Amino acid sequence: MSKRTRAAALGAAATALAAGLGAYPVFFRRWCLTWGARPDEVSRKLPGDELLPRASIVATRAITIDAPPAAIWPWLVQMGSGRGGVYTYDWIENLFGLDMHSTRRILPQYQGVNVGEEFQLGPGRPAMRVAVLDPERTFTLRFADGNWVWIFALSAEDGHTRLISRNRIAAAEAWPARLFGMLVMEPGSLIMERKMLLGIKERAENLARQQPA
Predict the structure, then answer these.
(1) Which end of the chain is more exposed for a tag (fewer CB within 10 A), N or C?
(2) CATH fold of 28-210, please?
């Protein structure tokens, strides 16, 4: 390949990349931040929103689970590093040293959760503190640095349950970090959170089938 051909190929690749990055905020960002959620769920106020009212990034994602809230709640309260994991791609989590091992069992030792209790996200990482605890309705975690609030809300509807996961994040002020967060971290969070929601759905539905009618 001649230098001119290589330069043309690199130029075309750079143009395609720039077009793709430019398209994300306009065409794909809202879908990325609201995957699975209905408009009323996106706009709904959830317990814990007030903990970070001026969040730079708000992602509200949701899934329908064919199980009652009682079959979903145990999977939520046992999440965390050294606990039940977070039901997503453990191998990716562990590339960052988070020591996540997603269980497929209910762990009785982690079911008695209290407001103020701390969960570890990973060794040496900021702890998640339980901020709102309304059994089978709302489970809200606030990170120790105050820059991230994670809300799980359960809503029973016609024999199934809607599980809403909302992340409220205070993004970095420097524009390179904000750009990286939008173009890299936001799509990455969808990949991980989608897997997590599907993982909870599978586990909860299996648990519901095992329970007596």
Answers:
(1) C
(2) Alpha-D-Glucose-1,6-Bisphosphate; Chain A, domain 4 (3.30.530)
